[in-house]
Amino acid sequence: xxxxxxxxxxxxxxxxxxxxxxxxxxxxxxxxxxxxxxxxxxxxxxxxxxxxxxxxxxxxxxxxxxxxxxxxxxxxxxxxxxxxxxxxxxxxxxxxxxxxxxxxxxxxxxxxxxxxxxxxxxxxxxxxxxxxxxxxxxxxxxxxxxxxxxxxxxxxxxxxxxxxxxxxxxxxxxxxxxxxxxxxxxxxxxxxxxxxxxxxxxxxxxxxxxxxxxxxxxxxxxxxxxxxxxxxxxxxxxxxxxxxxxxxxxxxxxxxxxxxxxxxxxxxxxxxxxxxxxxxxxxxxxxxxxxxxxxxxxxxxxxxxxxxxxxxxxxxxxxxxxxxxxxxxxxxxxxxxxxxxxxxxxxxxxxxxxxxxxxxxxxxxxxxxxxxxxxxxxxxxxxxxxxxxxxxxxxxxxxxxxxxxxxx
Length: 408
Fold this sequence. Notes:
The protein has helices at residues 17-30, 35-49, 55-67, 72-115, 121-146, 150-166, 173-188, 206-223, 230-243, 252-261, 268-278, 288-294, 302-324, 328-331, 335-363, 367-381, 387-404. It is mainly alpha-helical. The N and C termini lie far apart (64 Å).
Protein backbone atom coordinates (compact mmCIF):
# COMPACT_ATOMS: atom_id res chain seq x y z
CA UNK A 1 0.00 0.00 0.00
CA UNK A 2 1.62 3.31 -1.02
CA UNK A 3 2.04 6.12 1.44
CA UNK A 4 -0.57 8.84 1.37
CA UNK A 5 0.33 12.24 0.04
CA UNK A 6 0.31 13.64 3.57
CA UNK A 7 2.83 11.08 4.86
CA UNK A 8 6.29 12.51 5.59
CA UNK A 9 9.10 11.40 3.32
CA UNK A 10 11.77 9.21 4.94
CA UNK A 11 14.92 10.95 6.14
CA UNK A 12 17.83 10.06 3.83
CA UNK A 13 20.58 11.86 5.76
CA UNK A 14 23.86 10.12 6.55
CA UNK A 15 23.33 7.36 9.15
CA UNK A 16 25.13 7.45 12.50
CA UNK A 17 25.63 4.57 14.94
CA UNK A 18 26.02 7.10 17.75
CA UNK A 19 22.70 8.68 16.80
CA UNK A 20 20.99 5.29 16.85
CA UNK A 21 22.42 4.47 20.27
CA UNK A 22 21.41 7.77 21.88
CA UNK A 23 17.84 7.60 20.59
CA UNK A 24 17.38 4.02 21.76
CA UNK A 25 19.02 4.79 25.10
CA UNK A 26 16.38 7.45 25.71
CA UNK A 27 13.69 4.91 24.82
CA UNK A 28 15.31 2.28 27.03
CA UNK A 29 15.11 4.64 29.98
CA UNK A 30 11.47 5.68 29.46
CA UNK A 31 9.59 2.90 27.60
CA UNK A 32 7.30 1.38 30.21
CA UNK A 33 4.24 -0.67 29.35
CA UNK A 34 5.36 -3.80 27.49
CA UNK A 35 5.86 -4.71 23.81
CA UNK A 36 2.67 -3.12 22.46
CA UNK A 37 3.54 0.19 24.10
CA UNK A 38 7.14 -0.09 22.86
CA UNK A 39 5.93 -0.35 19.27
CA UNK A 40 3.90 2.82 19.76
CA UNK A 41 6.93 4.64 21.16
CA UNK A 42 9.03 3.46 18.21
CA UNK A 43 6.48 4.67 15.68
CA UNK A 44 6.34 8.10 17.27
CA UNK A 45 10.14 8.36 17.51
CA UNK A 46 11.15 7.00 14.11
CA UNK A 47 8.19 7.42 11.75
CA UNK A 48 6.61 10.65 13.01
CA UNK A 49 9.43 12.62 14.62
CA UNK A 50 12.66 11.53 12.90
CA UNK A 51 11.21 10.11 9.64
CA UNK A 52 13.73 7.29 9.45
CA UNK A 53 11.16 5.28 7.46
CA UNK A 54 7.58 5.54 6.24
CA UNK A 55 4.39 4.18 7.77
CA UNK A 56 4.14 1.18 5.43
CA UNK A 57 7.78 0.17 5.86
CA UNK A 58 7.36 0.35 9.64
CA UNK A 59 4.18 -1.73 9.47
CA UNK A 60 6.00 -4.35 7.40
CA UNK A 61 8.89 -4.48 9.88
CA UNK A 62 6.46 -4.93 12.78
CA UNK A 63 4.65 -7.70 10.88
CA UNK A 64 7.91 -9.58 10.34
CA UNK A 65 8.94 -9.34 14.00
CA UNK A 66 5.51 -10.49 15.16
CA UNK A 67 5.93 -13.47 12.84
CA UNK A 68 9.40 -14.49 14.08
CA UNK A 69 10.12 -16.12 17.44
CA UNK A 70 11.75 -13.80 19.94
CA UNK A 71 11.07 -10.44 21.64
CA UNK A 72 9.08 -8.53 19.02
CA UNK A 73 9.79 -4.99 20.22
CA UNK A 74 13.52 -5.65 20.56
CA UNK A 75 13.58 -7.20 17.11
CA UNK A 76 11.83 -4.15 15.66
CA UNK A 77 14.49 -2.01 17.34
CA UNK A 78 17.29 -4.14 15.89
CA UNK A 79 15.65 -3.96 12.47
CA UNK A 80 15.38 -0.17 12.68
CA UNK A 81 19.04 0.10 13.67
CA UNK A 82 20.06 -2.31 10.93
CA UNK A 83 18.16 -0.40 8.26
CA UNK A 84 19.53 2.92 9.51
CA UNK A 85 23.21 2.18 10.13
CA UNK A 86 23.97 -1.43 9.26
CA UNK A 87 25.20 -4.03 11.73
CA UNK A 88 26.64 -1.36 14.03
CA UNK A 89 23.23 0.30 14.12
CA UNK A 90 21.54 -2.98 15.08
CA UNK A 91 24.00 -3.45 17.95
CA UNK A 92 23.60 0.17 19.06
CA UNK A 93 19.79 -0.10 19.03
CA UNK A 94 19.89 -3.30 21.10
CA UNK A 95 22.38 -1.90 23.62
CA UNK A 96 20.59 1.40 24.10
CA UNK A 97 17.16 -0.17 24.53
CA UNK A 98 18.27 -3.15 26.65
CA UNK A 99 21.06 -2.08 29.00
CA UNK A 100 19.10 0.33 31.28
CA UNK A 101 16.60 -2.31 32.42
CA UNK A 102 19.24 -5.06 32.46
CA UNK A 103 21.50 -3.04 34.77
CA UNK A 104 18.59 -2.21 37.08
CA UNK A 105 17.60 -5.87 37.31
CA UNK A 106 21.18 -7.02 37.99
CA UNK A 107 21.49 -4.45 40.77
CA UNK A 108 18.19 -5.70 42.21
CA UNK A 109 19.43 -9.28 41.94
CA UNK A 110 22.67 -8.43 43.72
CA UNK A 111 20.73 -6.73 46.47
CA UNK A 112 18.45 -9.73 46.83
CA UNK A 113 21.40 -12.13 47.00
CA UNK A 114 23.41 -10.12 49.54
CA UNK A 115 20.68 -8.48 51.61
CA UNK A 116 17.66 -10.65 50.86
CA UNK A 117 17.28 -11.61 54.52
CA UNK A 118 16.62 -7.96 55.35
CA UNK A 119 13.69 -7.76 52.90
CA UNK A 120 10.34 -8.51 54.56
CA UNK A 121 9.06 -11.87 53.26
CA UNK A 122 5.65 -10.38 52.61
CA UNK A 123 7.19 -7.85 50.24
CA UNK A 124 8.71 -10.59 48.09
CA UNK A 125 5.48 -12.57 48.25
CA UNK A 126 3.66 -9.51 46.94
CA UNK A 127 5.98 -9.55 43.93
CA UNK A 128 5.05 -13.21 43.36
CA UNK A 129 1.35 -12.29 43.41
CA UNK A 130 1.90 -9.40 41.01
CA UNK A 131 3.63 -11.79 38.62
CA UNK A 132 0.65 -14.15 38.74
CA UNK A 133 -1.69 -11.27 37.88
CA UNK A 134 0.52 -10.29 34.95
CA UNK A 135 0.57 -13.89 33.66
CA UNK A 136 -3.22 -14.13 33.99
CA UNK A 137 -3.63 -10.90 32.02
CA UNK A 138 -1.32 -12.25 29.31
CA UNK A 139 -3.22 -15.56 29.11
CA UNK A 140 -6.51 -13.69 28.75
CA UNK A 141 -5.36 -11.22 26.09
CA UNK A 142 -3.33 -13.76 24.09
CA UNK A 143 -6.11 -16.33 24.34
CA UNK A 144 -8.58 -13.89 22.79
CA UNK A 145 -6.12 -13.12 20.00
CA UNK A 146 -4.84 -16.62 19.20
CA UNK A 147 -7.54 -19.11 20.29
CA UNK A 148 -10.57 -18.06 18.31
CA UNK A 149 -11.75 -21.46 17.11
CA UNK A 150 -12.05 -25.08 18.29
CA UNK A 151 -8.81 -26.17 16.62
CA UNK A 152 -6.80 -23.41 18.31
CA UNK A 153 -8.45 -24.19 21.66
CA UNK A 154 -7.59 -27.87 21.27
CA UNK A 155 -3.95 -27.07 20.47
CA UNK A 156 -3.79 -24.72 23.44
CA UNK A 157 -5.13 -27.36 25.86
CA UNK A 158 -2.83 -30.02 24.41
CA UNK A 159 0.18 -27.78 24.96
CA UNK A 160 -0.93 -27.13 28.55
CA UNK A 161 -1.16 -30.86 29.26
CA UNK A 162 2.24 -31.52 27.68
CA UNK A 163 3.90 -28.86 29.83
CA UNK A 164 2.17 -29.99 33.02
CA UNK A 165 3.00 -33.65 32.49
CA UNK A 166 6.24 -33.82 30.58
CA UNK A 167 7.82 -30.45 29.99
CA UNK A 168 10.50 -30.55 32.68
CA UNK A 169 11.99 -33.90 31.68
CA UNK A 170 13.71 -33.15 28.37
CA UNK A 171 15.34 -29.94 27.17
CA UNK A 172 14.20 -30.38 23.56
CA UNK A 173 10.52 -30.94 24.27
CA UNK A 174 9.47 -27.43 23.23
CA UNK A 175 11.05 -27.79 19.77
CA UNK A 176 9.22 -31.07 19.16
CA UNK A 177 5.90 -29.75 20.44
CA UNK A 178 6.05 -26.51 18.43
CA UNK A 179 6.98 -28.46 15.30
CA UNK A 180 3.99 -30.77 15.78
CA UNK A 181 1.49 -27.96 16.38
CA UNK A 182 2.93 -26.14 13.38
CA UNK A 183 2.17 -29.18 11.22
CA UNK A 184 -1.30 -29.38 12.77
CA UNK A 185 -1.84 -25.71 11.89
CA UNK A 186 -0.91 -26.36 8.24
CA UNK A 187 -3.31 -29.33 8.04
CA UNK A 188 -6.23 -27.95 10.04
CA UNK A 189 -6.18 -24.14 9.77
CA UNK A 190 -6.59 -21.74 6.89
CA UNK A 191 -4.82 -18.40 6.74
CA UNK A 192 -6.48 -15.25 5.43
CA UNK A 193 -5.05 -12.68 3.04
CA UNK A 194 -1.78 -11.00 3.97
CA UNK A 195 -2.70 -7.62 2.53
CA UNK A 196 -0.47 -5.41 0.45
CA UNK A 197 3.27 -5.52 0.94
CA UNK A 198 5.51 -2.53 1.29
CA UNK A 199 9.23 -2.18 0.67
CA UNK A 200 11.97 -2.68 3.24
CA UNK A 201 15.43 -1.49 2.25
CA UNK A 202 17.97 -3.56 4.19
CA UNK A 203 21.78 -3.34 3.92
CA UNK A 204 22.08 -7.16 4.05
CA UNK A 205 22.58 -9.25 0.92
CA UNK A 206 20.80 -12.53 0.27
CA UNK A 207 23.97 -14.57 0.76
CA UNK A 208 24.71 -12.94 4.12
CA UNK A 209 21.07 -13.41 5.17
CA UNK A 210 21.24 -17.14 4.41
CA UNK A 211 24.44 -17.30 6.45
CA UNK A 212 22.74 -15.70 9.48
CA UNK A 213 19.83 -18.14 9.23
CA UNK A 214 22.19 -21.12 8.96
CA UNK A 215 24.10 -19.89 12.01
CA UNK A 216 20.83 -19.57 13.94
CA UNK A 217 19.86 -23.14 13.06
CA UNK A 218 23.31 -24.52 13.85
CA UNK A 219 23.42 -22.86 17.27
CA UNK A 220 19.89 -24.07 18.03
CA UNK A 221 20.94 -27.63 17.19
CA UNK A 222 23.99 -27.29 19.44
CA UNK A 223 21.85 -25.85 22.26
CA UNK A 224 19.82 -29.07 22.61
CA UNK A 225 22.94 -31.22 22.99
CA UNK A 226 24.30 -32.27 26.36
CA UNK A 227 27.11 -30.01 27.56
CA UNK A 228 29.50 -30.21 30.48
CA UNK A 229 30.36 -27.09 32.42
CA UNK A 230 27.93 -24.62 33.93
CA UNK A 231 28.79 -21.76 31.55
CA UNK A 232 28.12 -23.86 28.43
CA UNK A 233 24.86 -25.16 29.89
CA UNK A 234 23.77 -21.61 30.78
CA UNK A 235 24.50 -20.34 27.26
CA UNK A 236 22.64 -23.29 25.71
CA UNK A 237 19.60 -22.85 27.97
CA UNK A 238 19.20 -19.13 27.31
CA UNK A 239 19.89 -19.40 23.58
CA UNK A 240 17.34 -22.21 23.31
CA UNK A 241 14.77 -20.12 25.16
CA UNK A 242 15.37 -17.05 23.02
CA UNK A 243 14.89 -19.17 19.89
CA UNK A 244 11.52 -20.60 20.91
CA UNK A 245 9.51 -17.71 22.34
CA UNK A 246 6.51 -17.22 20.07
CA UNK A 247 3.62 -14.92 20.90
CA UNK A 248 5.17 -12.45 23.35
CA UNK A 249 7.79 -11.91 26.00
CA UNK A 250 5.67 -13.44 28.78
CA UNK A 251 6.24 -16.88 27.24
CA UNK A 252 9.81 -16.78 28.59
CA UNK A 253 8.35 -17.58 32.02
CA UNK A 254 7.43 -21.26 31.49
CA UNK A 255 10.48 -21.88 29.31
CA UNK A 256 12.98 -20.40 31.75
CA UNK A 257 11.22 -21.93 34.73
CA UNK A 258 11.72 -25.35 33.17
CA UNK A 259 15.33 -24.59 32.28
CA UNK A 260 16.48 -23.02 35.57
CA UNK A 261 14.17 -23.73 38.50
CA UNK A 262 13.64 -27.40 37.66
CA UNK A 263 17.43 -27.88 37.50
CA UNK A 264 17.98 -26.12 40.81
CA UNK A 265 20.00 -23.29 39.24
CA UNK A 266 17.67 -20.58 40.59
CA UNK A 267 15.37 -20.86 43.62
CA UNK A 268 11.65 -20.71 42.79
CA UNK A 269 10.83 -17.73 45.09
CA UNK A 270 13.74 -15.73 43.64
CA UNK A 271 12.65 -16.62 40.10
CA UNK A 272 9.11 -15.35 40.59
CA UNK A 273 10.23 -12.26 42.50
CA UNK A 274 12.52 -11.38 39.59
CA UNK A 275 9.68 -11.81 37.13
CA UNK A 276 7.62 -9.38 39.18
CA UNK A 277 10.48 -6.88 39.27
CA UNK A 278 10.89 -7.17 35.49
CA UNK A 279 7.41 -5.66 35.14
CA UNK A 280 8.52 -2.55 37.03
CA UNK A 281 11.43 -1.49 34.80
CA UNK A 282 11.36 0.07 31.31
CA UNK A 283 12.58 -1.74 28.23
CA UNK A 284 12.15 -5.35 27.07
CA UNK A 285 10.90 -8.13 29.33
CA UNK A 286 13.71 -10.38 28.08
CA UNK A 287 16.10 -8.52 30.40
CA UNK A 288 14.64 -10.84 33.04
CA UNK A 289 17.45 -13.09 31.81
CA UNK A 290 20.02 -10.73 33.32
CA UNK A 291 18.34 -11.05 36.74
CA UNK A 292 18.39 -14.84 36.47
CA UNK A 293 22.00 -14.99 35.36
CA UNK A 294 22.97 -12.82 38.34
CA UNK A 295 21.14 -15.08 40.83
CA UNK A 296 22.47 -18.46 39.66
CA UNK A 297 23.30 -20.77 42.57
CA UNK A 298 26.75 -21.57 41.16
CA UNK A 299 29.26 -19.88 38.86
CA UNK A 300 28.94 -18.17 36.48
CA UNK A 301 26.76 -15.83 38.49
CA UNK A 302 26.68 -12.12 39.35
CA UNK A 303 27.61 -9.75 36.54
CA UNK A 304 29.31 -12.53 34.54
CA UNK A 305 26.27 -14.78 34.63
CA UNK A 306 24.00 -11.85 33.81
CA UNK A 307 26.10 -10.87 30.77
CA UNK A 308 26.21 -14.42 29.39
CA UNK A 309 22.47 -14.93 29.89
CA UNK A 310 21.60 -11.58 28.32
CA UNK A 311 23.75 -12.13 25.22
CA UNK A 312 22.56 -15.71 24.75
CA UNK A 313 18.84 -14.94 24.99
CA UNK A 314 18.99 -11.97 22.58
CA UNK A 315 21.38 -13.51 20.01
CA UNK A 316 18.65 -15.52 18.21
CA UNK A 317 16.62 -12.31 17.79
CA UNK A 318 19.44 -10.62 15.88
CA UNK A 319 20.22 -13.67 13.75
CA UNK A 320 16.58 -14.05 12.73
CA UNK A 321 16.05 -10.37 11.93
CA UNK A 322 19.25 -10.11 9.89
CA UNK A 323 18.45 -13.37 8.12
CA UNK A 324 14.74 -12.81 7.44
CA UNK A 325 14.48 -9.13 6.51
CA UNK A 326 15.74 -9.50 2.93
CA UNK A 327 13.21 -12.29 2.24
CA UNK A 328 10.16 -11.03 4.12
CA UNK A 329 8.19 -9.68 1.16
CA UNK A 330 8.19 -13.18 -0.37
CA UNK A 331 7.65 -15.13 2.84
CA UNK A 332 4.71 -13.12 4.14
CA UNK A 333 2.50 -14.42 1.28
CA UNK A 334 3.07 -18.13 2.00
CA UNK A 335 -0.27 -19.29 3.36
CA UNK A 336 1.05 -22.56 4.78
CA UNK A 337 3.63 -20.65 6.82
CA UNK A 338 0.96 -18.37 8.27
CA UNK A 339 -1.26 -21.37 9.07
CA UNK A 340 1.62 -23.00 10.92
CA UNK A 341 2.11 -19.82 12.91
CA UNK A 342 -1.57 -19.81 13.89
CA UNK A 343 -1.12 -23.25 15.44
CA UNK A 344 2.11 -22.27 17.18
CA UNK A 345 0.56 -19.11 18.65
CA UNK A 346 -2.31 -21.15 20.09
CA UNK A 347 0.18 -23.55 21.67
CA UNK A 348 2.15 -20.79 23.35
CA UNK A 349 -1.04 -19.69 25.11
CA UNK A 350 -1.07 -23.22 26.52
CA UNK A 351 2.52 -22.77 27.73
CA UNK A 352 1.51 -19.64 29.55
CA UNK A 353 -1.62 -21.25 31.01
CA UNK A 354 0.52 -24.09 32.40
CA UNK A 355 2.85 -21.54 34.00
CA UNK A 356 -0.15 -19.78 35.54
CA UNK A 357 -1.45 -23.02 37.05
CA UNK A 358 1.96 -24.03 38.38
CA UNK A 359 2.83 -20.65 39.85
CA UNK A 360 -0.65 -20.16 41.27
CA UNK A 361 -0.47 -23.50 43.09
CA UNK A 362 2.93 -22.52 44.51
CA UNK A 363 2.06 -18.97 45.62
CA UNK A 364 -1.64 -18.78 46.55
CA UNK A 365 -1.68 -20.04 50.15
CA UNK A 366 -4.53 -18.12 51.83
CA UNK A 367 -7.52 -15.94 51.03
CA UNK A 368 -5.44 -12.77 51.42
CA UNK A 369 -3.25 -13.93 48.51
CA UNK A 370 -6.34 -14.18 46.33
CA UNK A 371 -7.34 -10.66 47.35
CA UNK A 372 -3.93 -9.19 46.53
CA UNK A 373 -3.82 -11.02 43.18
CA UNK A 374 -7.35 -9.88 42.39
CA UNK A 375 -6.43 -6.30 43.28
CA UNK A 376 -3.41 -6.41 40.97
CA UNK A 377 -5.49 -7.87 38.15
CA UNK A 378 -8.19 -5.23 38.61
CA UNK A 379 -5.62 -2.44 38.51
CA UNK A 380 -4.05 -3.89 35.36
CA UNK A 381 -7.12 -4.79 33.34
CA UNK A 382 -9.86 -2.51 34.62
CA UNK A 383 -8.08 0.70 35.64
CA UNK A 384 -5.15 0.08 33.23
CA UNK A 385 -2.50 1.22 35.67
CA UNK A 386 1.12 1.10 34.58
CA UNK A 387 2.66 -2.32 35.38
CA UNK A 388 5.44 -0.83 37.52
CA UNK A 389 2.85 0.87 39.73
CA UNK A 390 0.83 -2.34 40.05
CA UNK A 391 3.99 -4.19 41.10
CA UNK A 392 4.68 -1.56 43.78
CA UNK A 393 1.12 -1.73 45.13
CA UNK A 394 1.19 -5.54 45.14
CA UNK A 395 4.48 -5.64 47.04
CA UNK A 396 3.13 -3.27 49.69
CA UNK A 397 -0.15 -5.20 49.89
CA UNK A 398 1.76 -8.45 50.31
CA UNK A 399 3.80 -6.95 53.11
CA UNK A 400 0.69 -5.55 54.81
CA UNK A 401 -1.14 -8.88 54.63
CA UNK A 402 1.87 -10.69 56.12
CA UNK A 403 1.84 -8.29 59.07
CA UNK A 404 -1.90 -8.37 59.63
CA UNK A 405 -2.45 -12.04 58.78
CA UNK A 406 0.78 -13.94 59.46
CA UNK A 407 0.83 -17.53 58.24
CA UNK A 408 0.75 -19.95 61.17
